[in-house]
């Protein structure tokens, strides 16, 4: 394995560079995945049947809370990467932990939001709109959940092994994933919630 | 017993019971055979756990041939049923199931597997790499594809086949009209194999971008590699659409949502829309690698370099983007206005332009060439006129107003078989024959191969050209029978005869493998076709590290340059080589996916949860696993090269 | 010391908070649908671009051409899919 020391550790081998590029291409596919969800959402937007519409169930407080939590977590994972590049293990682990906790609290608010919808009579079976809303939010939420486990594994590995060619690469890729989830959320926030409440 | 009742076949017939017995006996025979010859260990160590792109490619191709058999039997059954008016060989329901599985198997599990298998085998060799970028992921891709294929294929003996056509339109595919678990099988089989395909797409893009031999700039890649790059780009952006559509379909069928229902705000047209947003790019995913194969074959057997390399690349790039702009032409008759139909009519016709450019390039490559009519070349030469007919009828179908006449008739069936069979199937057979010596170290018999070609081509013309006529006369597709007064009888009989000839061609092609295995000489050398691109610089069959020394390249026909112009391909000395380790994880992961899919099909939630935990466990294991790979020593390489008579210098 | 301070990340964070606040104005003030949508489109895409550049370091790798091509291609086709679907299923019937 050839290690190129002029590069940050996560880019230092051919395999690492390929991992990062491969993940970027995967994110391209994810753009399309969420693009399809948005296309379907906009199509079924008015298909509320006899159930409530978006403007009737959306509430600004939990949505704003989720947005700020996720934006902050995107910031902290960025700080974790930064700390990794200046070789500060403690700070990296701390920021990674904060990110995961923020992710967990995001999920908590989202679950609260879903329970609220349930009480207002909006479930998976209510209408095409309700199902599409829950599927879109659920897909994003499932990504966050997956990310929590993934991040935890990486946390444990950095804790045990320190910064290696492997762990820095994984944690950089994880940061890409997490930022991407934030980008998706920005679109959900803007074009599902704000557009729905406008 | 109540638990097991759900696995019963809803529309049992003697045919299904017979195939059930046949499947059972085959499985028993394979198990006994493997045990008797003590091959379990070999199978596990050398094949099931392999991460070698060549072996994975070969496994893809074997699966594809199996699926070709399965889909082919379906095809012959359909032609037999419609050969005469008012036939009662199959009932309506059974006929529905047969055309559905025929379509899905042929597209998803035959054609896709064939092209991905071919890419797996050829692309790393053509770019001078030792493997793909993510060998482990490649194995996972294969096993997920295989899981999907098996899941789909057991449907007709456990629980019932899907019956709403390969396009699976809602509301027909909803639980109201399709009560059995058949469509659930469709959803999960495609979902699982689709994940595998997406991973393949990412894998090959990275491989081609990052692992090319020194000196091989993008514009110096062999054309098949270019075609693979573009194809995989389409895969990466098209398959997520299918993922979502299938997910929504699953929710509709199993969780009572109303995405594609006509009540509670649902919209059944949305399925058709999403399906074709994926489905039309899918057509180009199938055809572009075929174009790549033809480019290689035509240039090799004309003894000339490929005419118009740059325009070939440009047209593929254009096709890749345009393939996402035409999907609505699959449902012109759905009632959106003239504006929408007009837009998609024009984009559809426009996409014929880059395709036409490619046809002219192939013709000009042959122009004044010294053409050798080998089997791969015969398929390529046969492809050009036949595919052009398919393309021209495609442009006819692109005229939205006229489409009201053609829509859902046999004319359409004739058209897409006319592009897929001479396009994809011919290409894969050409490619298989062409690269066969690279894979196995001996040539396929030319004589039997040529018989196979003629049977296939003539059979194809007889089977599908009559459908253009009956289609224009109004014979609808997917009708299990018709009355004698319609006058469709004689032409359908001709179709049946054509299908029979194609079946004979398939038998000849399989027999050719057996015959050549027994009788072909093994000393064919590394370059039996006098070929041009880099993969021919390796010994036959290829050692598992591919190239003993990294090749250095300065044109798209590096091997030809080395042969004719004194280019030095291997300037460096042999050094130890780093290779990835085999792993059992991919097949175990796929096993969990199988349990997951199967349990989900029957809504057995305990199985779903257990399998999901298994999948997560595999992923966690992978995250913590350290897999540094292994090294092959210099001495071992020298020995292997000596034995194989490799091309690389011995110092 | 300058190298130690994550200036890029802090800037990105501040920008994203500001853009979120601007986007929120469509909820808190009364405006027409067109104006609101325009604001949302602008803020959302700028935010996405900020994440890409400030946080994800899209341009730092040797493979930035491949990365940008992939992302732009994905965005272009996603937009085609969204608007094409709306054209086909909604606007085409109006």
TrEMBL record, chain A:
At the highest ranks, the source species' classification is: Bacteria, Bacillati, Bacillota, Bacilli, Bacillales
Q: Which Pfam families match?
A: COX3
Looking at the UniProt record for this protein, which Gene Ontology cellular component terms does it annotate, in alphabetical order? plasma membrane
| A biological-process GO annotation | aerobic electron transport chain
By what name is this protein known? Cytochrome aa3 quinol oxidase subunit III
* Any one Gene Ontology molecular-function term assigned to this protein's record: cytochrome-c oxidase activity
**What SUPFAM superfamilies does the entry give?**
Cytochrome c oxidase subunit III-like (SSF81452)
Q: What is its main location?
A: membrane
Q: Which residues form the Heme-copper oxidase subunit III family profile domain?
A: 21-197
Parts of the chain that traverse the membrane: 21-43, 63-81, 93-112, 132-156, 176-194
Q: Give the keywords, sorted.
A: Cell membrane, Membrane, Oxidoreductase, Transmembrane, Transmembrane helix
**Region forming the signal peptide:** none
Q: How would you describe this protein's topology in the membrane?
A: Multi-pass membrane protein
> Which subcellular locations apply to this protein?
Cell membrane
Q: Tell me its family.
A: Belongs to the cytochrome c oxidase subunit 3 family.
TrEMBL record, chain B:
GO annotation, cellular component aspect: plasma membrane; respiratory chain complex
Please tell me where this protein is predominantly located.
membrane
Family annotation (PANTHER family): CYTOCHROME BO(3) UBIQUINOL OXIDASE SUBUNIT 1, CYTOCHROME C OXIDASE SUBUNIT 1
Q: What species is this protein from?
A: Ornithinibacillus bavariensis
Kindly list the cofactors needed.
Cu cation; ferriheme a
Q: Which residue spans traverse the membrane?
A: 15-37, 58-78, 98-125, 137-158, 185-209, 229-251, 313-332, 338-364, 376-399, 419-436, 448-469, 489-514, 579-598, 604-624
Q: How is the cofactor bound?
A: Binds a copper B center. Heme A3.
Q: What is the catalytic activity of this protein?
A: 2 a quinol + O2 = 2 a quinone + 2 H2O; 4 Fe(II)-[cytochrome c] + O2 + 8 H(+)(in) = 4 Fe(III)-[cytochrome c] + 2 H2O + 4 H(+)(out)
Tell me the superkingdom of the source: Bacteria
Instruction: Give all residue intervals belonging to the Cytochrome oxidase subunit I profile domain.
Output: 38-554
Which keywords does the record carry? Cell membrane, Copper, Electron transport, Heme, Hydrogen ion transport, Ion transport, Iron, Membrane, Metal-binding, Oxidoreductase, Respiratory chain, Translocase, Transmembrane, Transmembrane helix, Transport
- Pathway(s) of this molecule: Energy metabolism; oxidative phosphorylation
Q: Topology relative to the membrane, per the entry?
A: Multi-pass membrane protein
Gene name of this polypeptide: qoxB
NCBIfam families in the record, alphabetically?
A: QoxB
Q: Return the similarity comment.
A: Belongs to the heme-copper respiratory oxidase family.
Query: Which Enzyme Commission numbers does its entry carry?
Result: 1.10.3.-
Role of this protein: Catalyzes quinol oxidation with the concomitant reduction of oxygen to water.
In the record, biological process GO terms are: aerobic respiration; electron transport coupled proton transport; respiratory electron transport chain
Keyword Transport (UniProt): yes
Q: One Pfam family from the UniProt entry?
A: COX1
Please report the name of this protein according to its UniProt entry.
Answer: Quinol oxidase subunit 1
Question: Which GO-annotated molecular functions does the record name?
Answer: copper ion binding; cytochrome-c oxidase activity; heme binding; oxidoreductase activity, acting on diphenols and related substances as donors, oxygen as acceptor
Where does it localize?
Cell membrane
From TrEMBL, chain C:
Top-level enzyme category: oxidoreductase
Note the PANTHER family from the entry. Answer: CYTOCHROME BO(3) UBIQUINOL OXIDASE SUBUNIT 4
What broad class describes the main subcellular location of this protein? membrane
Is-annotated flag, keyword Membrane? yes
User: What EC number(s) is this enzyme filed under?
Assistant: 1.10.3.-
Task: List all membrane-crossing ranges.
Answer: 12-29, 35-58, 70-93
Q: What is this protein called?
A: Quinol oxidase subunit 4
Q: Which GO terms describe its biological process?
A: aerobic electron transport chain; ATP synthesis coupled electron transport; electron transport coupled proton transport
* Membrane topology of this protein: Multi-pass membrane protein
Q: Which reaction does it catalyse?
A: 2 a quinol + O2 = 2 a quinone + 2 H2O
